[in-house]
Amino acid sequence: MSMGEIAALIAALAFVVLVFFVIRLLAKVSQTVDKVQKTVDLANETITVVTKDVDVLSREVEGLLVKSNELLIDVNGKVATIDPLFTAVADLGTSVSDLNYSSRNLLTRVSSLGRTTAKATVAGKVGQAASKYFSKNKETAK
Questions:
Q1: CA 51, 52, 53, 57 torsion: positive or negative?
Q2: 97: pLDDT confidence band, cut at 50, 70 and 90?
Q3: What is the mean pLDDT of residues 34-56?
Q4: Per-residue confidence at 132, pLDDT binned at 50, 70, 90?
Q5: The pLDDT value given to residue 99
Q6: Membrane-spanning residues where (predicted)?
Q7: Three-state helix/strand/coil letters over the chain
Q8: Among candidates 79, 98, 78, which has minimal Cα distance to 90?
């Protein structure tokens, strides 16, 4: 074996080792690519499911918004219908308050008049009793 043959054998052996490591590297890269492809497929499937769910949800939300708008229109109409009732109740409350105030004033006046009248009545009765007493005394003195 000559030096050229040994060099060729070493080069061939180095090439075989290099090919072996390149094959292992390519196998690992292939496994990684397969895992990435599975992940991408799963992500695409998830996106498809989510898209379908979002479409269904958006239709339901749209229906809910339509019903909410109809309900709001109905409530606004009913509020407009009963608004005069609240105005009338407020006016009635004001009238009752004014009547209460007037009744208190009248009661205060009648109460003070009653005291004055009661005093005058008592004084009148005392005067009548005194007049009768003195008239009896005059009659008995005659």
A1: positive
A2: confident
A3: 93
A4: confident
A5: 80
A6: 6-27
A7: CCHHHHHHHHHHHHHHHHHHHHHHHHHHHHHHHHHHHHHHHHHHHHHHHHHHHHHHHHHHHHHHHHHHHHHHHHHHHHHHHHHHHHHHHHHHHHHHHHHHHHHHHHHHHHHHHHHHHHHHHHHHHHHHHHHHHHHHHHHHHC
A8: 98
Asked whether the predicted pLDDT for residue 70 surpasses 70, the reply is yes
Say how far residue 87 (Cα) sits from the centre of its chain: 26
Retrieve residue 93's tokens.
């409350």
Amino acid at 36: V
- Lookup result for tokens 């003070």: 112
